[in-house]
Amino acid sequence: MSVTVMLCVISALCITGVLAAFITVRLLRRKGSVLLEVASISEVPHKPIDYSKKPDNISITYESFFNISVKNGDLTVIIDEVIVRDNGVFVIVKKNRSGRIVGNERERKWFHMKRDSHKEMLNPIKEAKLKTFVLSKKLQSLGINVWVQGVVLFVNPYIEIVVGNPSVPVLKLAQLDQYLLQFVSNRRFNSDQISKVIYYLRGIK
Question: How far is C-alpha 84 from the geometric centre of its chain's CA atoms?
Fold first, then answer.
């Protein structure tokens, strides 16, 4: 049997300028070998992006963007991950620590304790708030008024977190999916707004 995988490949160059090319391809597995078949190609000439308009080809169910650089005014931040869902836009600040994390929202530094060491780490809630603020203000400057929620995520499974009642959720990796599913925004969303967010984030280089 053949295994069909649909991929969307973006970015193409041509002599006359830069084109955004959307290429649908199929991978066919036959007798241990993999063949690449181009099914369709559609090209759109490069032009200045108008973020006030909603493109027709944006899916709003779920999309993630990694290592996103966002500049607003004099502030530029690198965001580990931005998750766009139909119930919100989430700024994910990731930390890979094992052991025990102890702190509170007001402190500048937290304690990272392991069996044979005790170290300090900068408060990741403050980092998440800053990055959430910058992305939120950037979207507002583009006429996209949506709620942006910060999340601190510890990705190492061997972690214990002791943080009392933070305004920004501090989660283990296993808790993230449930949090996203149950999240209720402080601001109403519609498909047009979410599509514009995705359109903007896809355009970041």
Answer: 7
Q: How many other CB atoms sit within 10 Å of the CB of residue 112?
A: 19
H or E segment at 138? Answer: helix 124-141
pTM metric for this prediction:
0.70
**Tell me: the pLDDT tens digits for 73-110?**
999 999 999 999 988 999 999 999 999 999 999 999 99
Residue 69, beta-bridge partner list: 78
**In angstroms, how far is CA 18 from the centroid of its own chain?**
25
* Cβ burial, residue 132 (10 Å; 0-12/13-18/19+): buried
Which amino acid type is present at position 95?
K
CA distance 106 to 125: 9
Classify 54 as helix, strand or coil: coil
Residue 12's beta-bridge partner residues? 19
Pair 22, 34: CB distance under 8 Å: no
Rounded Cα gap, residues 135 and 154, in angstroms:
21
pLDDT tens-place string over residues 149-174: 999 999 999 999 999 889 999 999 99
